């Protein structure tokens, strides 16, 4: 009897080859159970620095550390067989210099087993992207709204209207020219995202950037209705698990307080040892 062939994991060259082809499916994952759910259906599982807000209750992503990303990266890698894991480089881990970026990227990849990192920034990060890719670190870029720069941008707003459009396009081109294998476009006008997608030789993955990107990404807790602190306008809820969980916990608490839990179906008779 022959053993089943091992599942081949998706890697950066596979993602790059999908430019203009079948749309790429990407969701965030921060834990092993969610990674197992995402794996059969997604091409990419992103361990986003959004974990700071979604799981740790932080007001923004700025307090996330390399250690946190490694912890969650390891958990996600344990749950993946097929999908490619990409791990965000957190604020302060790569901006100082290409050398700093390489040290932290190398640590993230070596300690998690993930094949790629993601970093935010356009033309200003091109030198760093080139430095990393030349040393064997695959990089996914991220332009448009860059949450780590939210204080500079003045909030979570649409980027690329009017005169900003040419700068966004130049940022995206610079990242592609530097060697990024894919790029996230966040909160861009749909027409600009379509223009960027048509211009670049690498896949674009949109989040709040219209339908014409080469793929789409959402925060999994947003689309499942688990994260309810706020709801971005572009998020479609595919479930309301937060509401369902609240109802389930309320029902459990009521049963405990009334003395109805555990009921007869949940009581296990003691096993009497045979003499």
Structure description:
- Strand 3 (84-88), helix 5 and strand 4 (116-118) form a beta-alpha-beta unit.
- Helix 4 packs parallel to helix 5, helix 5 (98-112) crosses helix 6 and helix 8 packs parallel to helix 9.
- With 275 residues, this protein is α/β, with parallel strands linked by helices.
- 38% of the residues lie in helices and 13% in strands.
- The model has no long low-confidence stretch (mean pLDDT 93).
- The radius of gyration is 21 Å and the shape is globular.
Total beta-strand segments: 8
Helix- and strand-based class? alpha/beta
The general outline is: globular
Query: What is the element string, with H for helices and E for strands?
Result: HEHEHHEHEHEHHEHEEHH
Layout of helices and strands, plus pairs?
Blueprint: H1 12-16, E1 24-28, H2 32-38, E2 44-47, H3 51-54, H4 66-79, E3 84-88, H5 98-112, E4 116-118, H6 126-134, E5 139-144, H7 150-153, H8 164-178, E6 182-186, H9 190-199, E7 204-207, E8 215-218, H10 220-223, H11 241-258
Helix pairs in contact: 2-4, 4-5, 5-6, 6-8, 8-9
Summarize the structure.
This protein has 275 residues and is of the alpha/beta class. Helix content is 38%, strand content 13%.
Fill in the keyword field for this structure.
275 residues, alpha/beta, eight-stranded parallel barrel, 38% helix, 13% strand, globular
């Amino acid at each position: 009897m022959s053993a089943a062939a091992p599942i081949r994991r998706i890697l950066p060259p596979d993602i790059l080859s999908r430019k203009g082809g079948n749309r790429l499916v990407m969701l965030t994952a921060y834990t092993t159970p969610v990674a197992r759910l995402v794996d059969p259906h997604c091409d990419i599982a992103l361990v986003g620095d959004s974990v700071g807000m979604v799981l740790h209750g932080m007001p923004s992503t700025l307090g996330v550390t390399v250690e946190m990303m490694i912890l969650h990266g390891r958990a996600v890698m344990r749950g993946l067989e097929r999908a490619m894991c990409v791990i965000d480089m957190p604020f302060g881990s790569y901006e100082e210099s290409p050398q700093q970026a390489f040290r932290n990227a190398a640590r993230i990849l070596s300690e998690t087993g993930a094949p790629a990192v993601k970093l935010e920034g356009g033309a200003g990060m091109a030198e760093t992207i080139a430095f990393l890719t030349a040393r064997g670190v695959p990089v996914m870029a991220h332009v448009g709204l860059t949450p780590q720069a939210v204080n500079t941008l003045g909030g979570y707003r649409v980027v690329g209207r009017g005169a900003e459009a040419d700068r966004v396009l130049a940022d995206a081109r610079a990242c592609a020219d530097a060697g990024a294998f894919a790029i996230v476009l966040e909160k861009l006008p749909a027409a600009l995202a379509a223009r960027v997608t048509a211009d670049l030789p690498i896949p674009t993955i949109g989040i709040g950037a219209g339908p014409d990107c080469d793929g789409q990404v959402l925060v999994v807790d947003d689309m499942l209705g688990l994260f309810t602190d706020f709801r971005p306008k572009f998020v479609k809820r595919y479930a309301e698990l937060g509401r369902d969980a609240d109802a389930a916990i309320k029902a459990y608490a009521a049963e405990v307080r009334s003395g109805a839990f555990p009921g007869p179906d949940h009581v296990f008779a003691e096993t009497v040892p045979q003499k």
